Amino acid sequence: MFRTALRNVLAHKARLLMTVLAVMLGVAFVSGTLVFTDTVGEAFKKSSAKSFDHVSVAIRADWSASDDENQREPLLTDALLRKAEALPGAESATGSVSGFTALADKDGKLVGDGWSTLGANHAPGSDGTDPRYDFTDGRAPESPEEIALDSRTAERTGYRTGDTVRLSVDGPVRESEVTGVFDTDDGNVAAGGSLVLFDNDTARELLGKAEEYDEITVKAAAGTSQAELKAEIGEMLPEGTEAITRDVLADEQADMITSQTKSMSDTLLYFAAIALFVGVFIIANTFTMLVAQRTRELALLRAVGASRRQVTRSVLVEALLVGLVAAVLGFGVGIGIAVGLRSLIGSLGAVIPDGPLVVSPSTPLTALVIGVVVTMIAAWLPGRRAAKVPPVAAMNSVHATPTTRGLVVRNSIGAVITAVGAAALFLGVSQQENLFMAAGAGAMLIGVIVLTPLLSRPVIAAAAPLLNGFGVAGKLARQNAVRNPRRTASTASALMIGLTLITALTVIAVSVQGAINKMAVDLLKSDYTVSMSTGNGLSPDVRETLDELPETTATSPMRNAYGEIDGGWAPLTGIDPKTIGKLLDLDFSGGSFAGLDRDGAIVDQETADAHGLKTGDTFEYTFQDDRSETLRVTGVYEGNDMVQGLFVPTAVVDPHLEEVTDYQVLVKMAGGASEGAEKTLVEALGENPAVKVQDKQATSDEVGKMINLMLNMLYGLLAMAVLIAVLGVVNTLAMSVFERKHEIGMLRAIGLDRSRVKRMVRLESVVISLFGAVLGIGLGLFMAWAAGQSISEELATYTMRIPYDRIAVFLGLAAVVGVLAAAWPARRAAKLNALEAIKAE
Amino acid sequence: MTTTSTGFPAAARSTAVAARATDLTKVYGSGETQVVALDGVSIDFRQAEFTAIMGPSGSGKSTLMHCVAGLDSISSGSARIGDTELTSLKDKQLTQLRRDKIGFIFQAFNLLPTLNALENITLPMDIAGRKPDKPWLDRVVETVGLADRLKHRPTELSGGQQQRVAVARALAGRPEIIFGDEPTGNLDSRSGSEILGFLRNSVHGLGQTIVMVTHDPVAASYSDRVVFLADGRIVDELSRPTADAVLDRMRNLPGAA
User: Fold this and answer.
1) Which residues form the ABC transporter domain (chain B) (predicted)?
2) CATH topology of domain B3-15+46-70+86-251
3) B98–chain A nearest CA distance, Å
């Protein structure tokens, strides 16, 4: 039987092409993911291990030992550094500090995204150099007016030694001279961040760590092991600190990187699984068609004595061979994908440390197993069906039309699964049980897939008026599309899966964006918000400066504080009661900003309800410094996730704060928001790269940009599933054209011209694609609705928004996909020689 | 069997030619594998005449029909449908010619399973974008006896009924000529004689021109004229044939056993 299977595979090479491609792409996705994440993980581990080259033992604060960070004494002091350096086993010791440092590029804009731009100290050892930094040009900074830049940042910004740069650490803008450019193994830089080096004293002063270092690292003298050095250090360690050897540090880092790459690869593998699942439909379709076409051959095998099991097995062996070939190809393509992905990410600006391609031995094995198992599972049902061919079918001289099996059983099963899924989904929605919802959604998706043949007739019939506009080609295309409901259904289902997910994700993302916008923007009456790019606090000077500008009509700080009411946690924002009414538009259910005075407080509904407060009531508020104030409720408003808690005058808050900073300043301009107005503000703040001045549009764009980026990534990941589904459409059409070559020949003979034969195939393809798209979009909208029910519990301003423009684009793309998928089958159909096709067999 | 026994009055016999082959040669392949299927065949198919082409397997009878019907290309010589020379036509024009001037009846029925009987019958007109001539269509449907089967799909019809649909399809568009390729080859003898009766009636009653390829002497006996082919040449011809006469001639053909 093996020989028969092998011969069959070889004889149907062309017909198996799309199946092989489908499995290959799925396997490529899996192996590409594995190779890519292994490679990246390994590269990061290497680079992080390298950054420990100059470290034998690190001393750092033991966070678990001290419970109150604010209260503790400085531990990693200069004194400790000198003691460590003096140890007999130590060759050198380095104290390091680092923190956010905003560097302006030549256009005055912040370099990087706000988190990955760091500043650190250059701490020269006894030989005058800091081993962590390798200067390729110039020298290290030595005075407060000097800095050095890492070489990649220098290249990116175009700064060279001798240039003057603008930067900001703690507020005011500094102008410094670049004295040198360096290479480093620092992990942040290896990952694409920027590093600005200050001389040791300047760094410690600017980064707010005058008294202690973030970490002290000690390098062992020749002949001293890490453990020996650690023991020496252990004897002099003050309480609340710990010493860690390089090996442990490196392991910690490696574990962290492993868990990060693991979560990345898990996410990617989810999408690979979806792509493989879609592939199953194509494989099953192909084998079903191959079996149907070979009814007579299979019957002959049965007639000459092959058992049912042998027939099934021969189909499975074919599947095994197909899966094997596809898996091997897929593994090769996967390595290509991994290489491509690395350079793609590199070209997008992110930096992955260099390193060799890592193919762990389990990867090819996984690829093989997945390719073979998926193909064989998909071919199992067609294989069983093949075994049911009665031996007598071999004797029928008349071309036996395969009997169409009833869909009653299938429809019943589908209806039950869909109903159970829908019930679970609704139960999940009403009970807020996410598990029920997810299971229900999954069951519904499968139920609808099972029901697709039933749905194909009415849905495609509904498109009849449209198709009839294309004349006889349209009419024939419509009838061909519903001719084999199972085949049409599994082809369309493959496309449906991708579109369900794409639609649901799009609707949810757009709705979330709308909800966040509503929270962040709708409540603002101010024209601009000013904040730090890192989210750190602004100095109160900023508000003073802005308030004094003649162009501003109202400004208010947003000054955060935390405290308790009756032991219940209640956040609080200090504002300027005189101007806040012009800047913030809260949804008041009682009172207003107008009555806010020295002892007043505006309270959100939730807090008010929790403590039974209403306008006019008084309550005790306990600040962080354990001192209390008696406050009177002057207004109650409906809060949301971004605007919540109490609003009180800054005068009430300030005495209780250790350090007065504003997380935001709201500004209203005389002439509203404009380019000029923004420029005025930016200039008034000294064109500080660390300060962010945003109008409402920019705030909502920032949210939109993030969500769009995420959505585009998801689109990219789902593209593979859609691509495989498109291969399925090509496959189905090619098979159909092959099966109908007599008919097409007859049509050609009685006068259907080539262009209309093509049109007929193309329209059938478009009908199938749109059918899948319509089902997918419908199901996607439903799932988005269901998910929205649980999101709106968390996000009060969430309402479902259907992005009609995007959905129209999806439908349009589905039609285009249909036309493209038909290109090759349509050409083949048009090329059919009428004579060849009508010749009796 | 004679033409008068059908009860139809004999249509005025015209001498005009519906299709003509002149020195028609068809060669397949090249070099050592070259096969001459038709070797300088010249023949006229007159209007309102029922011609049968006979010959042993490989004699070129089907090839002759395919060439004259514009389904296959011609190596040299000429083939005409009415006044139209086929050798000068491109695929598009040939397709249009087949659509408008030629009807086909195939051995394997070749109906579209997705269309019902009536839709199959009017398919050539649908393709041409023409409205069927209703009285004519009714007459054709009545002639082949399908009036109560029009809404049935081909799978719901017997072989004989399916072939009657195919005959009606060929007749419905009033083509200049109908070509039949073993139209009774897949039918039992009763259904076969029914079909042949329809074909003869359409020639004598409706003035249709029909050319039929067959290897069955009984089928050939329904025709007005039998042309015998052997080795790609016309070797004999018989007017007003009977089955016995055809069988007799067949035995004496070169290459016949």
Assistant:
1) 19-256
2) Rossmann fold (3.40.50)
3) 5
